[in-house]
Amino acid sequence: MIVAFSVTPLGVGEDVGEVVAEAVRVVRESGLPNRTDAMFTTVEGDWDEVMDVIRRATEAVAARAPRVGLVLKADIRPGVTDALTAKVDSIERHLATD
């Protein structure tokens, strides 16, 4: 499965980058394929692995903020691996043929 998630510390002011970095650190240290952009961090693995990483990332933010917002979007396709890269590669191939 692939899950895009955003964890937002609330009640810590406007500059949340330092706190969000704690969540991204958890994801990167997990060893699962992942990617972070301006809005979401996307992680790929099996259900239990991915949800555990998201839980731990959320807990890392909660340790530094009185309230946390969490948004998830999941693509659940059993048996599919490397979709994090393959989906983007497919789009790039289609763009290259135009």
Descriptive keywords:
Alpha-Beta Plaits; 26% strand; 98 residues
Structural write-up:
The chain is of the alpha+beta class and 98 residues long. Helix content is 44%, strand content 26%. The chain has a single domain, classed as 2-Layer Sandwich (Alpha-Beta Plaits). Strands 2-3-1-4 form a 4-stranded antiparallel sheet, with helices on one face. 23% of the residues are buried.
Please outline the helices and strands.
Layout: E1 2-10, H1 17-29, E2 34-36, E3 41-44, H2 47-62, E4 67-75, H3 83-96
Antiparallel strand pairs: 1-3, 1-4, 2-3
Helix pairs in contact: 1-2
Please provide a brief summary of the model.
It contains 3 helices and 4 strands. It has helices spanning 17-29, 47-62, 83-96, and strands spanning 2-10, 34-36, 41-44, 67-75.
Instruction: Give the percentage of residues in beta strands.
Output: 25-35%
CATH topology: Alpha-Beta Plaits
User: Could you estimate the helical fraction of the residues in percent?
Assistant: 40-55%
Please provide the count of β strands: 4
Roughly how many Å apart are the termini?
A: 30 Å
CATH architecture term: 2-Layer Sandwich
Q: Return the string of H and E elements.
A: EHEEHEH
Biggest sheet features: 4 strands, antiparallel
Let me know the average pLDDT: 94
Please give the count of helices. 3
Global geometry: globular
Number of domains: 1
Biggest sheet strand line-up? 2-3-1-4
Radius of gyration: 15 Å
**Assigned CATH class:** Alpha Beta
The secondary-structure class comes to alpha+beta
